[in-house]
Write a structure and sequence with these properties.
Length: 93
């Protein structure tokens, strides 16, 4: 699977984990040079507190377009540190 934004591959892996229809990419498969930390957080009742990154490509910023669970609840331990994308980031094979 590939995560693509602004014609740039942000992440690529054959080992994503699908949770609630979202592909979570292993941390090592994500090109960190396209991520900028965000102060934004959300909370999922069963996964826990999510942290976000802005996706930045060629000076264009897609705010809070990537999220991950640094310390998920027990039910979601398998996605610890894995990143998922939304807000226009295309997930393709």
């Amino acid at each position: 699977m590939k995560a693509v934004w602004n014609n740039t591959i942000i992440a690529e892996s054959n080992n994503t984990i699908i949770v609630e229809g979202n592909h979570y990419f292993p941390p090592e498969s994500v090109k960190k040079e396209y991520l900028e930390p965000s102060d934004y957080h959300t909370t999922c009742p069963w996964k826990g507190k999510a942290s976000y990154y802005h996706v930045v490509v060629d000076g264009n910023k897609n705010e809070n377009a990537a999220w991950y669970y640094p310390e998920p609840k027990e039910a979601a331990r398998n996605i610890t540190g894995y990143l998922a994308f939304w807000n226009g980031v295309q997930i393709t094979k």
